[in-house]
Amino acid sequence: MNKASINHITSCQNSRNTMSLATISLLLLFFSASISANEKPSAYEELQNYDFPIGILPKGVTGYELNTKTGEFSAYFNGSCRFMLSSYELNYKPVIKGVISKGILRKLSGVSVKVVLIWLNIVDVRRKGENLQFSVGITSANFPIRSFVECPSCECGLDFIHEDERKFRQKLHVSSS
Predict the structure, then answer these.
(1) Which of 71, 78, 136, 152 is the most exposed place for a label (fewest CB within 10 A)?
(2) Which pLDDT band holds residue 172 (cuts at 50, 70, 90)?
(3) Residues 57 and 105 grouped into a single domain
(4) Distance between CA 44 and CA 56 in Å, rounded?
């Protein structure tokens, strides 16, 4: 075998190795892109896609379904979840449902608020600038978006108190002493 033949064989092997490496790289890129495309965002990320803060949902969502054409959704928890928001006690059932669109949650079911001694269903939540407006049908209440930066914990139950309310209660305690 002459030197030209050896160089030709070596050149062919190098280009095969380069092609194999390029093919493997393209396949890896394709598979990683298809895997990440199949990963659906969390329920909290979906809320952000619709201009809502993540803290509108308590921690512990175990799954959700969303029809992106109609906006109909369901979110699932392991059980009921209660926590405080300002001076209101909220209750999330194990399944909450509704219709979501940019800045609007409507036809809600599974979320209620205790007003005085009565539980009322929250039927609508709307983003109004830097506030969220919660409606129970006959009346509504506005809360600043900053109250929903973090997700409340169900485990905290009634011990969860928003920072503003904690400060207010501390002032009351100090002034009554």
Answers:
(1) 78
(2) very low
(3) yes
(4) 9
